[in-house]
Amino acid sequence: MSTRPQLPGDPSNLHLRISYDDELWDTPQADTLERWSVTVLHRRRVHDGDRGAETTSGCATADCTSCTAEDAVVGSMTFYRVHLDRGRNAYWAMEEESEELYETAQVLLDSETGSFTSEVGERLEYVGSALLIMDRVTLDPAWRGHGLAAVLACEVIHRLMIGCRAIACSPGVTDLSSQRLTDQSEWDRVNAKIAQGWESLGFRLYRDNVYLLSPASQELEEQRAVLRGRLAELGASWRTGTS
User: Which parts of the chain sit beneath pLDDT 50?
Assistant: First the structure.
């Protein structure tokens, strides 16, 4: 029997809202950096407005007319598409955007040209010119521990990777609210587990905690099918009360 906590809802009802706000700034910076926001939503059924979400066991049918659907936010992600061939020098554009992006730029890009360093370029196939960065992935605590972050992030990557030559991430804890992570060994364990999740998609450590993945990777395509199957299994387990 699984020792993992029960999910708070049917994971089959998770879905994503991927958005890009174009503020119409006619600047080289805007042409270089695109910030994509992803909201993770869970669609829940609510009966009569006064019973708990998903609590519909008393309904005569699954199509109960007293039930309504509502979307609850259960997580978020942030991705950046960095165009290395237009606008300003991408290295310095990333430096101005955030410390995290700057650390990635220092590992992957040439500060003079804003392009991939020759060493990085030799590792990548020519399937595009941009760089996709998975900057932040967060799920509410109740939804963690079931591998859902990898499932959901994989879908976003497939939507945004067109025209990109590389996908990068720097695995690590982003939610610093947990008191148990004050212990160094627990901190290291959790970070290692996060890295393992991204490695399952095909990300490989390049240098200084920057991981790289090629959009042309066959492993990425294969893992997408595996993860979709995993999501279906989790949904079936939740509905039978065995997850």
Answer: 1, 51-58, 60
pLDDT, residue 116, reads 97
Q: Whole-model pTM?
A: 0.86
Q: What pLDDT, on a 0 to 100 scale, did the predictor assign at position 128? A: 93
Q: What CA–CA distances, in Å, run from 12 to 54, 75, 152, 194, 240? A: 13, 15, 11, 22, 13
Contacts of 144 (CB under 8 A, 6+ apart): none
CB atoms within 10 A of CB 15: 13
- 3-state SS class at 181: helix
User: Which residue in 37, 235, 19, 239 sits closest to 148, CA to CA?
Assistant: 235
107-137 residues labelled b (16+ CB within 10 A) or e (exposed): bbbbeeebbbeeebeeebeeebebbbbbbbb
Positive or negative: CA dihedral 181, 102, 144, 58: positive
> How many helices (DSSP H) and strands (DSSP E) are in the chain?
7, 7
pLDDT number for residue 236: 93
**What pLDDT is attached to residue 177?**
55
**DSSP code at position 241:** T
Q: Give the chain's length.
A: 243
Q: Where are the alpha helices (DSSP H) in the chain?
A: 28-32, 90-97, 99-108, 118-121, 148-160, 184-199, 218-240
Domains of the chain with CATH codes: 11-240 (3.40.630.30)
**pLDDT for the residue 243:** 56
Q: Give the pairing type, strands 67-82 and 204-207.
A: unpaired
